[in-house]
Amino acid sequence: MAHSTSGHDDLGGRFTLAGTPLTLNRLGYGAMQLAGPGVFGPPRDPEEALAVLREAVAAGIDHIDTSDFYGPHVTNRIIRDALAPYPTGLTIVTKVGARRGEDASWIEALSTAELIAAVHDNLRHLGLDALDVVNLRLSSGHHHPVDGPVEEPLQALVELKRQGLVRHIGLSHVTAGQVAAARAITEIVCVQNQYNLAHREDDALIDALASDGIAYVPYFPLGGFTPLQSETLSAVASELEATPIQVALAWLLQRAPNILLIPGTSSVAHLRDNLQAGSLRIPPEQVARLDAIGSGPEARGSALPRNG
């Protein structure tokens, strides 16, 4: 298991994915920003990208979120170059269900053939024989999840799991109805959706998953590519002698015990700042003020892109 360092040694506490042997630090790392602008092409600074990953693991992060459509193929190759042979206890979570066009567009890729190819691409570029967790991403091209059938694409992953190429299955960019439908087909260990201080549509889903021990992993926990703009957030951060980003992450960790975080960055300095959120405790009075962000005018202060 990767070791921890002082200053953020609990990394948000621990959570065990239901029905698995995987017990993870709740503060992880998302690799999306290691690719070039628009999550397309190579990184601006390849050496810094390698350094970020090595620093993350050295600091105690034990789960990394990635996908072969980041780049495409870029982040997975960087992860392999930086960390292989992988340390014991490192869990890599990847994602299938989309592909990239030559113009950097995000295109749905949910046919059985496309999903099989995507799993093999992830295996090859990460240098693995099996993938720890694969999230099936639905509703590509839509800003919010859209209800639709899950059985056909999910059965493709179930078959790959039977073959031993996939160990566990999760979902991404899905509705509560799709989560229920998927759970009737196979065991789901995590759900990855948009959620943060200003975007609270999944409150009920988070609580339902928590009762069943299923992890909820918010993407764009900081509002996406545009940082959350909130006077309340800034004021609370000042009171706690922390940054707004650290407070936004700490709020998520306190929101529910099944929330796992995957904040991304291509900077070692920003990574170190993010890690401090793992040990930040927000008092109840400030939590109440932050909770109000999701229902007030501040909720309109962030813009989210159509990817993830």
Question: Keyphrases for this structure?
Answer:
11 strands, TIM Barrel, alpha/beta, 34% helix, seven-stranded parallel sheet, two-stranded antiparallel sheet
Short précis:
With 308 residues, the chain is of the alpha/beta class. The chain has helices at residues 46-58, 74-83, 112-126, 151-162, 176-183, 203-211, 231-239, 244-255, 268-275, 284-291, and strands spanning 14-16, 23-25, 29-30, 63-65, 91-96, 98-100, 106-108, 131-137, 166-172, 188-194, 215-219.
Record field, number of beta strands = 11
The CATH superfamily is NADP-dependent oxidoreductase domain
Runs with pLDDT <50, length 5+? 1-7, 301-307
**Major pleated sheet:** 7 strands, parallel
> Per CATH, what is the topology?
TIM Barrel
* Secondary structural class: alpha/beta
Q: Helix share of residues?
A: 25-40%
Oligomeric composition of the shown chains: single chain
3D structure, described in words:
This protein is an alpha/beta fold and 308 residues long. It has a single domain (14-300), classed as TIM Barrel (Alpha-Beta Barrel). 34% of the residues lie in helices and 16% in strands. It is built from ten helices and eleven strands. The strands form three sheets. Strands 3-4-5-8-9-10-11 form a seven-stranded parallel beta sheet. Strands 1-2 form a two-stranded antiparallel ribbon. Helix 6 links the parallel strand 10 (188-194) and strand 11 (215-219). Helix 3 crosses helix 4 (151-162) and helix 7 (231-239) packs across helix 8. The radius of gyration is 18 Å and the shape is globular. Mean pLDDT is 91; it is low at 1-7 and 301-307.
